[in-house]
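Bug report (template v2)

What were you trying to do?
Predict the complex of my protein with magnesium ion.

What happened?
Run completed; filing so the output is reviewed.

Input:
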Amino acid sequence: MNEQPVIVKNLVKKYGDYVAVNGISFEIKKGQVFSLLGPNGAGKTTTVEILEGLRKRDAGQVEVLGMDPEVSKEIYNKIGILPQDFTFVQNSTPKEAIEFYCKLFGRKLDPLELLKTVELEDRANVPFSKLSGGQKQKLGLALSLINDPEVLFLDEPTAGLDPKSRRNIWQIIENLKKEDRSILLTSHYLEEAELLADNVAIMNRGKIVDIGSPKELILRHRGKDLLYIKGGKFLGEALENLGIQFKNEDGYFILGLNDSKEAIEILKRIDEMGIPFDDFMIRRENLEDIFLKVTEE
Ligand SMILES: Nc1ncnc2c1ncn2[C@@H]1O[C@H](COP(=O)(O)OP(=O)(O)O)[C@@H](O)[C@H]1O
Ligand SMILES: [Mg+2]
């Protein structure tokens, strides 16, 4: 058993003079979901394709299940790939797609059973072109599972999907994780990483700008909790008179809190002054705030 199925050290990839991946390092432990999180052009797909053996690196070390993907073709029996923008022969059905892949990998599987694991069994005989975006991605996921892989590379599996389909795919990924598969998930959806990933590397312009569990990243970069109070001009004046600093956004006055008790005190004082306010909430910075901060720095 490989306890560290993916190891990347000082990986560099250039396209001509352009450095797309600039010395990144990370490891994925067995049974973990690791998310490479970054905006378009960050170098996520390049990294993933190097790990899949589809691209050559310029420098650094890469190990997938103890093998060098650039050299070992054996690797294809043990990894599953869902490429970015997955597509298939337009007039082939999911059932045919699975039969085709089974031949390719020399596996015997019941297509319907596999389609069940991605909740696509009722679309087994519908041409690819007639599937919804979410259903296409589910087929891609099913195909990535044909060889019962230990490591899965999922490149933006939920890009462009509606919220319901995204949730659906998240559930499937959670199930795959329970089966102890290791998963590299690229995404630019922060909530996806926050929900699914054990570890997250925030990537920007070819570099990893920070790495850790979602909790660690939030603790490391989190600013103050914010109190949002909805109100009018009088509320603004009252806050000014109280010497409280605030920002004004979308009709909300936004105040930084030192602790949550402070929120009660502020609201009490405003209430005592007879100032009306419509609504309030406290918002804690999430991975999305952190991501924006870290990639801007
Ligand atoms: N085959 C290629 N030739 C030249 N430049 C490329 C090639 N593939 C990707 N790039 C460039 O490398 C950078 C990283 O791309 P990519 O790895 O696809 O990022 P991401 O997946 O994070 O959006 C981008 O600026 C992209 O334009
Ligand atoms: Mg990409």
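What did the reviewer find?
The radius of gyration is 24 Å. The pocket of magnesium ion (ligand 2) is lined by residues 44-45, 84, 155-156 (CB under 6 Å).
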